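Many groups now describe folds with learned vocabularies. In that spirit, our science desk offers one protein's residues alongside their backbone shape tokens.
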Amino acid sequence: MTEQRFAILRQLPPSVWVLGCVSLLMDISSEMIHSLLPMFLVSTLGASVATVGLIEGFAEACAQVVKVFSGALSDYVGNRKWLAVAGYALGALSKPLFAIAPSVGVVFTARLIDRVGKGIRGAPRDALVADVTPLKLRGAAFGLRQALDTVGAFVGPLLAVGLMLLWGNEFRRIFWLAIVPGGLAVLLLAFGIREPESSTRSNPMRMANLKKLRRPYWWVVAIGAMLTLARFSEAFLVLRAMQGGMPLALIPLVMVAMNIIYALSAYPFGKLADTMSHNKMLMTGLGILIAADLVLAHGSGWSTVLVGVALWGLHMGLTQGLLSTMVANTAPPELKGTAFGFFNLVSGVSMLLASSLAGLLWEHRGAAATFYAGALFSLIALALIAMRKD
């Protein structure tokens, strides 16, 4: 079994590995900042939890709206790579703003710029993965890219913890250092990938030809939206850990724990998606998310939070690469960028609603109510999937 898994990894195109390493570097850069940002906003700039939820939700929604246009544009011009390069460059350029931010408004602006960059790069990058990968290996390809991305997502917080301890909780100094891996990601993508010849070029009507997106695709969009409503911003995991009284420097370890589980599970579950019922996998993932919400609602002690975020990471590893595979498999080749864009648009609007609601519930009903609401949305999504046959 292990030999077969390594054989599949060797069959994946080099471009998939490069895209995964680009994601890894940018996630190190982003998570060095984002794992500290809720604490920085609340403890240094005096923001409320509701404000944190609104910033996170609005920023993520903005990213997903931009993905619609970048995905459609990549279909129209037949070029995915340079749109992705532009998006990664914008994300890298946003990092200094976090370091100099004197107010919540500047952090909000920096977060928007960073997420616009993510929006520009996301759909073209995912469409490029689909373009260069044979159909039978798509689940493995998306799983690998997600796994490498998530390695960055736990290395970043781990670096943040070490630097917080070394530099005595100097948030801004760490934010400056985050510029380095972001810049390396841009250079690797610009010089490390040669985009294949596209068969989707030169049709000005293609961007509007959405009738080719059939019912199976729109069902994936609907389920993705429900999953996002159930899984609000991960900033609330950090805030939950803060309630347990841990030293500020150690709180990013909750993101490290979550992303280690996420990284270890993303590729195996991605490979499984090439052979197993997608509906059954989604239902399993939702069951795990419900368990995570109930654990996190139960208490804020360090051991309780650690169990909850581990379950949250397992859910992410099971569902995120799977949803990308489902989008790629249900969209026509000439509209893959557009398909990823619309999928992310709907997910982004759901994230805005979910994070805003989570912040308001936290402020007015307490942390437990926030996680119970997440469990309720998960149950609704579980029921919808159970009613549909593969």
Notes: The chain is about 80% helix and 0% strand. Confidence is low (pLDDT under 50) at residues 199-208. Residues 47 and 349 are 23 Å apart (CA to CA). The radius of gyration is 20 Å.
